[in-house]
């Protein structure tokens, strides 16, 4: 393995370990994950910067997808029982708010998402227009970025994720992993509708 590939592998290994133990569905699901495994992904400022870069990528691509999907397709879903485009976008916005709220960072008063899972469900039950969905998604990512800034020096602070005790560092790994799981879902939906993602060809 050449030096550049070896460096890339060493950079990615901790995140891959964390991804393997991250929640496969919603971030507030029950788990028995060991905190030490997740914390590996946040060892040092370089890895935190890596996570920030991954948030930037998801932010940019979700906003592009939410913009390029025609409003008449927002309720498309591949089958019954799974989220539509609209619901995927609102799910990401809801978890952006929820993640920060779990770390004690108040959400805007008109959003209504707190650290209680019931508030997340209520938020996702909204039926918003495309324009409203875009606005909620944009605001949620802005809040998410500011939440990381506020917690970067407090990554060992404990938090509760459902009945599981984690710390802020663990939570950030789960949030970013979860975000990219749903980015893949949204990209697959876009391709299934014969729409080329704006950054692709």
Notes on the protein architecture:
The chain has 201 residues and is mostly helical. The chain has a single domain, classed as Up-down Bundle (Four Helix Bundle (Hemerythrin (Met), subunit A)), CATH 1.20.120.450. It contains seven helices and two strands; from the N terminus they run H-H-H-H-H-H-E-E-H. It has helices spanning 3-21, 35-39, 45-68, 85-102, 117-124, 130-151, 168-192; strands at 158-161, 164-167. Strands 1-2 form a two-stranded antiparallel sheet. Strand 1 (158-161) and strand 2 (164-167) form a beta hairpin. Helix 4 (85-102) packs antiparallel against helix 7 (168-192). The longest helix has 25 residues, at 168-192. The two termini are 30 Å apart. Mean pLDDT is 83; it is low at 1-25 and 28-38.
